[in-house]
């Protein structure tokens, strides 16, 4: 009797398990690195052969308006793992690993595991978050984690493909399968053989990635799991030719997204039949929430985004939002708003150029060729724009100008669209608690002083007055001499955020008069390093360099949080580095596990090399390694 009862109970458990597996689909998420949708055949590229992805698109649903939250991997993946935009989370600088309140914010695999899923990620994490090991939220890191699950247990498997990563376009660009002479260039690139060769090399890389995607799909099919598994394919952002990855142009954030849903889950189809295109706007921050919904898992209230697939589909948002901030050793601060027809970009640091020298980017032959073409007058207004300062606002007609080379922001006929998207951006910034209206070192300092994470600090209006910062930024960016009295008032504020935007506005007005110089000199000793650095730049710009030079050199000797920003100001201001040699020598010149210190080291080496100064041995290793990697035949 007991044996019969034991058998019945086991059969019942198996039945329940199989029923659960039938109700809850397996999910396989295939993620390629860096590839914009336009590199792939089914998205209209006739110069590449991606037969596996193209066939997959015919079996699934191809989304035409999917956008990354950030145009680079770590901040983008930070939003993926939490379901919270990195700009809202405080994890926005590339490779920073700032902590978040892990007691409040779990990762989406945590909820999948609670719902009974076996989870595996192969193998890239790069979540840009401190305080928790990236791998902790996963059951395993193999590519076929489904083999280790319990009988009947649904699985969620991620496979990352690095064959299309930017690094695959580094090095020798000779002997490519694609002919450099036959590739079509983006309109913003000059027609140079070095650029064409790099395109050809990256086309080869995209095709290699397609082969790996095909192998993953074949493995799923051979395991007999294809009819029980929803398969998703997309990239982690756009890229990789210069001017795409790291930037908010279409080529930097417009990602492929294809979803294949088996017949047994037909009720989840977003269109009438496989092979259809779906024009719904999808932001990357929508994905974790959607995956949890498909799995029947708990969706925490803290998650942002909109469910875009399945019975719990939420209304389509009219806009997708993205951001750009510090990229490795280089600072910037931008936001973008996308709908299905227009792209709007707001530049909060318009006084610096797009094409700042970035160590990793300059490993591309195409980037070095582009820079050489600009310096030797082989570019025009379109192909040379990358090396000029930016407008405050950009607006592009995506139907007429997919390469984003014709800025419509000043066109009267586009004023209504511009004003609408500008207003929607502000609404969004307020709703998500945009954390980058304070410069990086200052927001860290303020959070640490209050024993909070940046995420917590920016949600306290007493510590982070976002509406006032947005107003001050607009005042500064207006570049209107009539605003000078109000900008000078900002310098007197007890809030470092307002002081910072005051210095930005006064810098943008140009050569400072005696009144402005007198107002900024006391700020050379400001507790906020970025305020002090911007004040020094104002004085340097005006020819009053002595006090500014001493203040920056003294601050560098103390190696504050703002060191990297100060090094960038030395570059932006084109100042004589002679008086700074001793201060530069005092900075760390050996390796570190801290990404910020390594970025400082890279920037220190670049400043020295570009100004003809000797490079110490520790920094020289950085320089020599880069030169070795750049030693390619440019014929």
From TrEMBL:
Residues 1-21 form the signal peptide. PROSITE patterns: SULFATASE_1 (PS00523). The keyword Signal applies. InterPro entries: Alkaline_phosphatase_core_sf (IPR017850), ARM-like (IPR011989), Sulfatase (IPR050738), Sulfatase_CS (IPR024607), Sulfatase_N (IPR000917). It comes from the Bacteria. Pfam families: Sulfatase. Residues 25-297 form the Sulfatase N-terminal domain. Gene3D superfamilies: Alkaline Phosphatase, subunit A (3.40.720.10), Leucine-rich Repeat Variant (1.25.10.10). The keyword ATP-binding does not apply. Residues 612-635 are annotated as: Disordered. Residues 621-635 have a biased composition (Basic and acidic residues). Keywords: Calcium, Hydrolase, Metal-binding, Signal. GO terms for molecular function: arylsulfatase activity; metal ion binding. Belongs to the sulfatase family. This is Sulfatase. The lineage of its organism: Bacteria, Pseudomonadati, Verrucomicrobiota, Spartobacteria, Chthoniobacterales.
